[in-house]
């Protein structure tokens, strides 16, 4: 498709593309909108690619609803979520997961039952949490799964299952409990298992000796020995 295609000409191009895809000879469809056949052929290719991506996103996003939650007390947001959101999410969604982007959590839910009824129930609960000052405010957003980055619809589905298990474990299993193994250590073990499962490291030496040091610049510098809490506490 020519780079200088104006917005006013987009609909004409779409019309020509649809004509060609439904049986009109390419030359005739192009002539109808004063396009070169080569330009229309390129437009058809773009149309097909965009349609494929849209269908993949629709397949992976079906049933997902995104909400943004801004907590009144960010340092204790996890405690608030564990106390006031975990049960609500379990009751409302077949799968749910969150990412933290200060000052909000972005929570994605694959809703149970009738979406409109479930959304209404969740909205009422969040309004009550806002009134009680457990959260500052909340609003809805748009979730667009990054299917291409995860290898397509099948990979995105697997990633969603992992995100759900990880998020649920944080709020329902790990929060507020003492464990012999710290979260950072557990994260290393889980990521190592994932990489081995993907065939990205056959031995402990290969995984920890090559991949983890490459991430060192992105990890916080630990405090001097004896000056802070043990990672396993």
Q: How would you concisely characterize the structure shown here?
A:
It contains nine helices and four strands, in the order H-H-H-E-H-H-E-E-H-E-H-H-H.
Structural topology:
Blueprint: H1 7-21, H2 26-32, H3 37-61, E1 64-71, H4 77-84, H5 86-92, E2 93-101, E3 104-111, H6 115-131, E4 135-141, H7 153-174, H8 183-197, H9 204-214
Antiparallel strand pairs: 1-3, 1-4, 2-3
Care to describe what's here?
The protein is α+β, with helices and mostly antiparallel strands and 233 residues long. The chain folds into 3 domains: 7-59; 63-147, 2-Layer Sandwich (Alpha-Beta Plaits); 178-215. The chain is built from 9 helices and 4 strands. It has helices at residues 7-21, 26-32, 37-61, 77-84, 86-92, 115-131, 153-174, 183-197, 204-214, and strands spanning 64-71, 93-101, 104-111, 135-141. The chain has a 4-stranded antiparallel beta sheet. It is extended, with a radius of gyration of 25 Å.
